[in-house]
Write a structure and sequence with these properties.
15-stranded antiparallel sheet, 31% helix, 594 residues, 14 helices
């Protein structure tokens, strides 16, 4: 049986991340960065595309697993006829090179353990040359090199283009493996002590998690989501990737398989809000600074997403040698949507910087001048159709959410000048822009017969992004048009109590065959909207259901299939975890500390 997406747990070092399955196999790891080529790609293929499994000989799925509280350190345990054993997986904070540390510990009896390592560089396509050196197994192919060692040393041999070890551990006995990557033209980096790395990683993560100011209900879920966001942060720049994976399908066997190892502007305001509200000002400031660097330049060139350091070229191509997760092809690298026009991102940038200014984050030179230039560009360009925030591939439309976010951009500029009189800009002109956009949206984007806003001007379709109308302040929550829109979205896009982004199947806007699961972030937005309109009991019930969809270690993917009862899409998904944090803050804000 093929693993399910929720069978995986995440470990990482804030520069890349690995997925570890219930069977003790690391099936996905890109080195040295989130967006680098994978050296373990079994997740999107088979064993010959690279993996590293450590488990009791002959055993299958583990008996139990869990993160150590407040950390990204994973314990996986098996109970066997011989006894019990634990494998602890982590990627310690990087000093010189990325290390994957796996510590095997006997818990009772004497258990025979098997390690099978198949390194396949360049997304599973290249079998490296293996040799022995200084007590290591060294793999080299092109620019990549890895060094594998164990402490204490155990017998290791090569077979079937893999590296194998077999040993036994009794109660209290430990064997630690360390796999270290470095550029093949450079010397081997300094060795890390795996046991010290484990101890310091636990201490560092727990100290970080303890900074969370939220003390309300579901605190464990909130902290786990914040740890996941931290793990998806590229430490050197502060950018946060949408997910650690590419091409996990939105429909099993379908073609909706995208690369999410980049940083989306649509996530920016909600990300900053979650970090600030929970007490993580340094991370919030790093994200704000990444945003400023990424969007610097001609406002006409603003993109919807960027690379980890703000890279702009993310060409999309396919990997035909990978069969895809559960046969879901194609496997894509890069993302062609980077070329799309999405007017909503101007609103996201303005809203994020407005929030940062109100929150008291240290101002940056030229931040306001850049915002002013963005507004001037919008003044001349906002009437264009665009592809909308969902990156549809069926052509441009006048999407209502995009126009609402243009209004947000103008509104935040006006408010900034009202709150901070020293700022200079065309206040009257921006007020006029705000009023004109608001008037047009209410005239062309609203269906009075059905009492709902629509997906785009003149359509009868709906869009879950309309749930954000009261959140961004476009209309008050008690406006009948807002209440009608919330009810219409829940009725027409609802499925099993959750909501789809929009009607994908058969939609000319979507431009793709097949369908997709319900969208978890949008379902959190529905909970927020219900709460804002006075239906807090329903909102809390929905929030509790959404928290319950997380896997056994508290992780959420992008989407969920209520019929098959399974997660779909890239994993773990920052947008889903941001939704969890912000909805918890909205529902239980009076019960949190700080």
């Amino acid at each position: 049986m093929h693993p399910r997406i929720e069978d995986y747990a995440l470990i990482g070092d804030e520069q890349t991340a690995a997925l570890v399955g219930l069977d003790g196999s690391v099936d996905w790891l890109c080195l040295p960065r989130f967006d680098s080529a994978a050296c373990f790609a079994k997740l999107l293929g088979d064993e010959d595309n690279g993996h590293w499994r450590i488990a009791p000989k002959g055993a299958d799925r583990c008996t139990r697993r869990a993160y150590r509280p407040g950390t990204l350190v994973l314990d996986t345990e098996w109970d066997t006829d011989e006894g019990s054993v634990r494998v602890t997986d982590l990627m310690p904070q990087r000093h010189h090179a990325p290390d994957l540390v796996r510590v095997v510990e006997g818990l009772g009896g004497r258990v025979t353990v098997r390690s099978t390592l198949r390194l396949r560089f360049d997304y599973g396509s290249i079998v490296p040359w293996m040799r022995r050196a200084d007590g290591h197994r060294v793999a080299v192919a092109g620019p990549d090199s890895t060094w594998l060692r164990s402490e204490p040393a155990v017998r290791t041999w090569g077979e079937d283009f893999g590296t194998h070890s077999e040993f036994s551990v009794g109660e209290g006995e430990k064997v630690a493996f360390v796999l270290t990557w470095h550029p093949s033209h450079e010397p081997r980096p300094p060795l890390v002590d795996p046991y010290e790395a484990l101890e310091s990683s636990v201490a560092d993560w727990q100290a970080w998690a303890a900074r969370c100011r939220y003390e309300g209900p579901y605190r464990d879920a909130v902290v786990r989501s914040l740890i996941t966001l931290k793990a998806l942060t590229y430490g050197p720049t502060g950018g946060i990737v949408a997910a650690a994976t590419t091409s996990l399908p939105e429909e099993l066997g379908g073609v909706r398989n995208w690369d999410y190892r980049y940083c989306w502007l649509r996530d920016s305001t909600l990300t900053l809000s979650a970090l600030l509200a929970c007490g993580y000002q340094n991370e919030a400031e790093a994200w704000r600074d990444w945003l400023l660097r990424a969007v610097a330049g001609d406002p006409a060139d603003l993109q919807i997403m960027y690379g980890l350091a703000g890279e702009r070229r993310l060409p999309e191509f396919e990997l035909p040698w990978l069969s895809g997760f559960a046969g879901s092809r194609p496997v894509r690298i890069g993302n062609e949507a980077v070329k799309q026009l999405q007017l909503d991102v101007y609103g996201e940038v303005m809203d994020t910087l407005s929030l940062a200014r109100r929150a008291g984050l240290p101002a940056k030179p030229h931040m306001w001048s850049m915002q002013s230039v963005l507004l001037e560009f919008l003044r001349s360009s906002w009437r264009q159709p665009d592809e909308g925030l969902w990156e549809v591939r069926g052509g441009r439309r006048h999407f209502v959410h995009s126009k609402v976010m243009v209004w947000v951009a103008a509104d935040r500029a006006v408010r900034a000048m009202e709150y901070f009189p020293k700022l200079r800009g065309d206040l009257d002109g921006w007020r006029a822009l705000r009023d004109e956009v608001h008037r047009q949206v209410c005239e062309k984007g609203y269906d009075p017969e059905r009492n709902t806003f629509t997906q785009f001007y003149g359509s009868r379709e709906l869009d879950a992004a309309l749930l954000l109308i009261p959140r961004v302040g476009f209309l008050p929550p008690d406006d009948p048009r807002v209440v009608g829109t919330i009810d219409a979205v829940r009725d027409e896009l609802g499925h099993g109590g959750l909501v789809h982004r929009y009607s994908a199947e058969g939609s000319p806007v979507d431009g793709l065959p097949g369908g997709e699961g319900t969208f978890l972030a949008c379902s959190f937005w529905l909970a927020d909207a219900l709460h804002m309109t006075g239906r807090t009991k329903e909102a809390r019930e929905l929030f509790e259901r959404l928290v319950g969809l997380a896997n056994d270690v508290g992780l959420l993917s992008e989407e969920y299939d209520p019929v098959a009862d399974m997660q779909l899409g890239n994993f773990p998904q920052a947008f889903s975890h941001i939704g969890l944090v912000n909805t918890a803050l909205a529902l239980f804000g009076d019960e949190r500390a700080g």
